Amino acid sequence: MADPRPPADPVLDTRVRRRAGQLFLVLAGLLTAAALLRPLVPHRPAWLQGGYALLLALGVTGSALLAGLGGRGRPEALALQGCLVLSVDALGQLAAPAGWPSWPLMSLLVASQAVAEGLAAALAFAGQATVLAAATAAWARPFDARPALAAAVGYFAIALAVNRALAGEKRRLSATLAELARLTHGIDQLDDEPGQASRPISSAAEALRQVSGEGRRARQLDRAGELDAALRQIVEVARAAVEAHAVLYFDVDRDREQAHLRVARGPEALLAECAVPLGEDPFSFLVERDQPFYATDFKRLLWELPWYRGQVKVGSLLALPVRSGGTTIGALVAERLEIQSFTGREPALLEGFAALAGETIQRARASLGREELDAEFKAVHPISQRLATLSREADVCGLLLSSARHVAGLEGAAVVMTDELETRYQVVAAFGRPGEYLNRTVGLDERTWAAWLLRSGDKTLLLGHLAGERQRMPVFVLDEGSARAGALLGVALRARDATLGALILTGPRDTFDTSSLRVLEILANQAAATLSLIRDREKQHQLAVLDGLTGLYNRRAFNGLLASAIANEDRREGRLALVMLDLDHFKKLNDTHGHPAGDAALRSLARLLDQHLRKGDYAARYGGEEFVVILPGSDEQHALQAAERLRTALQKYRFLHEGARIPLTASFGVAVWPGDGREPEALLAAADRGLYAAKQTGRNRVVAASTLPAESPTGAP
Asked: Which of 301, 200, 284 is nearest to 250 (CA)?
């Protein structure tokens, strides 16, 4: 799909870059002439050595920068290659007294130039290298022309040999790509409804409703057979293209944690059936990292491959993930008996076959999904029953996405949810391409298709050809770039006349039809009702456990949290700290500024606690102006430091009430489990003793219970 954005402006104007490249090419020629004098040998003057080295560094750096720019031209590329030849020659001059030859490195450079710049340029650089080798021989004492002649023959032979080998590889690749195109066209025939986009969708939906269970199973078997035949073709062509000892395709079964051999072409020693645990290489690396796996000369692995009958001395193995909808569903494995194999263009070629296998499976699944829509309708009832039993929004969204996978051949899907104020939405669950935008937040007033659906009040949005729409908008977030999805199906999650969010599916052009839409509407309605009930329960739970004024946990919830935290630390032999704090002179604050000011002070302290505590710490309003904080995993030193940070932050803080900036301070008591008390009541009493001591010794301070006598009066004035 074309990118509608204009191309970026070049860093340098084309004419300026070409002129600079020509200047550097002239510089490379002048440096070549200067190199004939062997300026870097030890007995040359320092000014000559330094000047030549400086000019050579300038030539290499400048030509490399020009060649690295987009849209580079021929002069700067030739200048860079010429300067590289001079650099290798310079290394040879410097290393010659130590007896180190430069011809191996020069040979590699000439070979790489034959690959990168073509035969004519490679021969020119081979000539440059030969001239420099002749200059070395001419300055040598005694004179010996044999090294120069050997270098000339070697450099030119390398350039010619690499160029011929590359030409043969290109011919083989062209033939392979032609066969690949033919095979791709054959795979297109797997779609039994090539004219579906132009036919009325309602007729296809009506036919699906008439499918019997026996006919559906028969078609499933037919599709599986067709898929096996297509995969066999891919494996056969892949094996011939890379001249492999064997090529195999495995299905990845994540539920059973196994990779099942489905299609293989190779020697008779290959097993007809094989299941390999996903925890073993190459599948462990391939599935966990979603990256190709390569091994060579690794006898412990390669000589004992489980899909062979007996030992086969495999030298190299390359396994590539086969993806569908952004998920690894299989593996394409190629082997050779030679070590250090599968280099050059062969990995890229095998990646193309892996992509073709993924596309074949995706198309077969899409076709099978269309034939099984009747079964999808029958599956709606149990899914609805399961939705009704869920108690977490994440589980509802996950079930909704997993159900959507079966409706059509998706590229991806996401659930977006609006906030309470209905001013923005967030991508809360996704797979495939939309997974890139997980947890991203977008304003409802932005121009995206997701925002349009959520704002419009419509229940559904079906766009079969996104690129053909008059309005060009991204689907989920503003920085998606050019449109990558061909089609879009969105279903709003509405309950009690409120839009909670939406389920949005993306796929290839004309993937979705009205039968898919009906299934998703039913599931979305049930999911929305479940989400509404979950939110109601969460609100009721918050009312039960949260303090209405501060939003912190109330005393009842705190008691449960403390008991649970102590039990957790007891199981793992850990530790925790309890901090109790009380606002100083709170009664005076109420008497002077009124009870609304006191309420504002309590809310300010709650916000301060929320800002300064770690994730996993718990703060609660214990009663009146008294607060408690649970610090799991903290010892006394950490707890004292945390309490001191809170005390200092509160001392510096001024809360605003009716135009007055009012200061606040608090006293803190710290107790640590289990040293200051093993039971919740004992720990609370110890923290209270520390708080009482802080009050008694002048307020606005932190006191640890461990510094006090075991028995101390409780309560604070």
From this structure: 284
678-711 pLDDT, tens digit per residue, is 999 999 999 999 999 999 999 999 999 999 886 5
Marked catalytic residue, from 625, 644, 679, 711: 625
Greatest alpha-carbon pair distance for the chain in Å reads: 108
The stretches of 342-474 forming alpha helices (DSSP H) are 346-371, 373-389, 393-404, 449-456
699 CB-contact burial (10 Å; exposed 0-12 / middle 13-18 / buried 19+):
middle
pLDDT digits (tens, 9 = 90+) for 318-336: 999 998 877 888 999 999 9
Q: What is the CA radius of gyration of the chain?
A: 37
Alpha-carbon dihedral angle through residues 240, 244, 248, 249, given to the nearest 10 degrees: -60
Choices 3.10.20.880, 3.30.70.1530, 2.40.110.10, 3.30.70.270: CATH for 555-707: 3.30.70.270
Residues of the chain within CATH 3.30.450.40 domain(s) are 229-371, 373-538
Chain-centroid distance of CA 243 in Å reads: 34
Examine residue 282 and say whether the peptide bond preceding it is cis (omega within 30 degrees of 0): yes
**Angle, vertex CA 520, rays to CA 514 and CA 524, nearest 5:** 140
Task: Give the CB-side neighbour count of residue 437, counting CA atoms within 13 A.
Answer: 23
Q: Which CATH superfamily is domain 373-538 in?
A: GAF domain (3.30.450.40)
CATH architecture of 229-371: 2-Layer Sandwich (3.30)
What span, in angstroms and rounded, lies between the C-alpha atoms of 579 and 583? 13
Residue 511 has pLDDT above 50, yes or no: yes
625 catalytic residue (yes or no): yes
